[in-house]
Each structure stands twice: as structure tokens, then as C-alpha cells.
Design brief:
The protein is mostly helical. It is built from five helices and two strands; from the N terminus they run H-H-H-H-E-E-H.
Length: about 100
């Protein structure tokens, strides 16, 4: 069962919006409306992504009056997010398809 959980974590990190939400929540707790302003994405999509993150244990929520505040579930996820971000910055994406291969022209 542990392998399924590991796969789900990577699946959650593979989506750009979910990853961006996690990056933001790793620095501060936020409401959906704050995330909408920060990401400039429609509220229903943010809510859906938060639901996926919550169901997979990456995000937790608590009620504060009428507001629901979201936060990262475990501070150790900060390291995973940092490593993911650093790896993405180090990989040089080069397209080798025929349309982009300027050496063949």
C-alpha cells in the first residue's frame, strides 16, 4: 500500500497547478480566494485541485469562522517541493523533433 501512496504523491506533483498551490502553501496558509488572486485561476478549478491534494494527504484544511484555511500537511513536503523545483531548473529541455531540428535545414 505504501507504493500506491508514493505514486499518488508524484502524480499530485506532476500537475503544474497543484504543484504551484503546494509551493504557495509551503510558505503561508491561505484561503481559496487568496489562491485565486495569487494564481489568477478560476475558483472552481482551484477548489478541485485543493480537493485532490487534500484527498491524497498533501494539504489539510481547517475552519476559521466562515473561512476555510488551507496549509501543507507536512513540513517535510517542503523538501520534496524544493528538490522538484531545483531539478526542473537544472534540466535543459531540448526538442529533437524534425520540425525543431535546425541542423537538418
Amino acid at each position: 500500500m505504501e507504493k500506491i501512496r508514493d505514486i499518488n504523491i508524484y502524480k499530485m506533483l506532476s500537475d503544474g497547478i497543484r504543484l504551484h498551490i503546494l509551493k504557495i502553501l509551503s510558505t503561508k496558509n491561505m484561503q481559496v480566494t487568496d489562491l485565486v488572486k495569487e494564481l489568477n485561476i478560476d475558483q472552481p478549478l482551484i477548489s478541485h485541485k485543493l480537493k485532490e491534494l487534500r484527498e491524497n494527504g498533501l494539504v489539510i484544511s481547517h475552519r476559521s469562522g466562515k473561512n476555510i484555511i488551507y496549509s501543507i500537511s507536512d513540513k517535510s513536503l517542503n523538501e520534496v517541493i524544493r528538490v522538484t523545483e531545483n531539478a526542473g531548473n537544472k534540466i535543459d529541455f531540448v526538442c529533437n523533433c524534425a520540425e525543431c531540428d535546425t541542423d537538418n535545414i
